[in-house]
User: What shape does this take?
Amino acid sequence: MAGETGSGKSTLLRSIITNLILNGKYNRYELHLIDLKNGAEFNVFRKSKYVKSFSRTIEDAEKILNKLIIEVDDRYDKFFKNDCVDIQEYNKKYRSKMKYKIIIIDEFADLQNEKDSIQILETLAAKARACGIHLIISTQRPDAKVLNGRIKANVPSVIGLKTMNEINSRIIIDHSGLEELKGMGHGIYKFDKEIEFQSMNISSGTARDLIKHTYINKKEENKPKNTGELPKDFTIGDFNGN
Assistant: This one.
């Protein structure tokens, strides 16, 4: 998903995540949100029980992406050992089901200088779909360096919102046209064919009201503040790393 500032990208992402959470009880999936605007855009979703990880910084994002690439390898090992080709066949054969995982990254262009993270994203885009791990990536800076050939080749669905110029439109959907859109959620969805659409405007307050029944108290919410005091279970052995 790509488009200039004011094109409606963040609002559309909010709508997608809200719908995923509302349908979470009917489907076996979990969400991993990476919000590189320091958590501002996705904060409303952070407490939902369907959000299994929430990253606000590049460092947090790298940790989650590394865990997920390990998960991809582990899943393919299970498929090999159990004579399965993908998650659908595995889940049909076994009572213990694998969950789908959806990684949603807002402003993934901020990772472009992080070589390891971009390589992981390229690998996830190339091989993770069959094992039930999916990517939704978005940017408001759609240049050729950000949307490189390997990512474009392995991302089958594209949403193009209004762009500043014809060049950016060609980078996103391979032809001009996005520069002529109205903005504010007016876009083109490209898969087997192209569909012009107008996305729904959903405010953060409305999204919160719709999903607040899924909020839970999470461990990271309850971490004790660093007061400088020693923990109650502290022992002398802790000085020796025991």
In short: Strands lie at 29-35, 51-55, 100-106, 133-138, 158-161, 186-190, 194-198. The first strand starts at residue 29 and ends at 35.
